[in-house]
Amino acid sequence: xxxxxxxxxxxxxMMSIVLACGFSFGDTGLSDTEKLQTAVAATIxxxxxxxxxxxxxxxxxxxxxxxxxxxxxxxxxxxxxCNQALFISETIPDGTEFDVGxxxxxxxxxxxxGTCTWNTNYKIIFADGDKMGGPSSKNLNIxxxxxEQYDFLVDLTAPNTAGTYKGFWKIxxxxxxxxxxxxxxxxxxxxxxxxxxxxxxxxIINLFTTDPATPNADENTHTKVRVKxxxxxxxxxxxxxWYGLDTFADPSCYWNVNGGLxxxxxxxxxxxFVFASWYPINKTSIAIVDTNNSVNESNEGNNTxxxxxxxxxx
Length: 314
Fold this sequence. Notes:
Layout lengths: L1 H20 L10 H16 L37 E6 L5 E4 L3 E10 L10 E7 L7 E3 L9 E9 L5 E10 L5 E13 L12 E9 L8 E10 L8 E6 L9 E5 L8 E9 L4 E11 L14 E9 L2
Parallel strand pairs: 2-8
Antiparallel strand pairs: 1-3, 3-6, 4-5, 4-7, 7-8, 9-10, 10-13, 11-12, 11-14, 14-15
């Protein structure tokens, strides 16, 4: 209310000044009353304080940070399992040959790369295939800490029949849980060759002649016989006989070789004989070695040699 009174007083004062001073509005075509009203309105407008339009506060936007394309995010480490093994080496390569019935050892060297210690309740077990005389299971004989190595060994025997054999084995922990699969051993069992027969002597006659080739009755006949031991072992002593005719009851000459013959050795035996009668030349003369069978030979069927046809001239 006080503010409006002040404005009104100011307007009246201004109007008085205008009228007193003859303030000119120019030739506006307005009456004096209209001019006075205009002046009052202008004065009032000049004294009305400007209105302030409040400005709404704008929300503050947070900046968005886009990571660089080359930023490296470290991977999440995967925890190691309790039981884990790494194959290192093995004995007895696949296809190794053994005689039937031959004993051998097979081993696999593994490294403990898990987090648990393999105690003596861990074991290797037979799983499938050819057992080859091996155990059903075999415990570790020491504890194996992470990072250490151990040789899993089984005693085996090649089967008694020739052929190829393959057996599979596994490793289990102290709870019986398998954590190593597919260990195997593969061999070839071969038959044992029979030993060669024991060496023996073998006596033969490789030369047998008479001089003259056709003897004459009542004349000297010179006979030559050569005996050879073609065996691989020295012979014992033996006897050699010559029958002028194979129909004679007694030998015409004979020789005793008491010292025998070394393997590959030979001896020449000679004698003189006179036929008391003539014989047609359709007969056979024969020489025989080891006549009493005192020598055990590899071949008993080659102890004779003959001359045929044979006869004696009158």
